[in-house]
Amino acid sequence: MKRIILTLLSAVVTLTVSAQQADTTFVVYYGYQPIDTITISKTSKTFLQLQEAESVVKGITDEPTKHRVIVEYVLSHPDSDGSIYLMRYLSGMINYNKCLPVLTERVRQGVMKRLYDCFVAAKAEEDAFTSITAKAIKIGEEAADFTLEDINGNMLTLSSLRGKYVMLDFWGSWCGACIRSFPHLKEYREQHRDKVKVVGIACHDTKEKWNAAVKRHELPWLHVLNGEGTNDVAELYGVQAYPTYVLIAPDGKVLQWMSDDPDTFDLYFDDHMLE
Fold first, then answer.
1. pTM score, two decimals?
2. DSSP state at residue 21
3. How does pLDDT run across 159-206, given as a tens digit for each residue?
4. Closest CA to 143 of 55, 249, 61, 267
5. Is 93:113 a contact under the CB 8 Å cutoff?
6. C-alpha angle 258/194/169, rounded to 5°?
């Protein structure tokens, strides 16, 4: 989903009450495109809601933490225009799926209506995109088995790992979002190293680039190179975006999958799944 930006028309105007100006004007951006201009009184309820909302995330630099704070705020303030204002900071469809349904009709049809409509349209587009993956990876059903060559030249079969939880990571050395996700995956593996086997499936890569990336980023788990034709495991799993993660239970059934912003990793794969 595109990053949502709500900026003031004048760079020098901030969300503070000014005795010299009774009203303030906002330009609402979707991505980098202006979609609306809003003028409100600095004594209005909407302005005060925007001020309050902005103060909630002030000083938070860690993105996953900021996302959690925003979601909690929106869920507890569904009738605030400030909730949509805060949602411009969000990334990850899991967050939008939580926030959009709770907003009241007043907020949906209020001063931020055009921004809300953009969120809804983007969600519909994303749902259509990920529906291909959802048809291939069904939670509660057995994960499709496969055999691929590992980084040492041996053949690795998914079903040989039965008895352990398995996290499949569809990635590529060329994929910036995949690289950004490695700290999340490393932390997850370290926390659950006795229970979980991680299998990285490099896609659209050469052996040389694949090997170099594994060494450069110090990825201490199992690695295989995706095949072609009938052995294209990414196609078998309906992968449309990278990274895509699939968590498989010890009995071989799919527990969860995600194809979303890397910073939402812990929202999909919490510790309770491994109990």
1. 0.79
2. B
3. 999 999 999 999 999 999 999 999 999 999 999 999 999 999 999 999
4. 249
5. no
6. 25
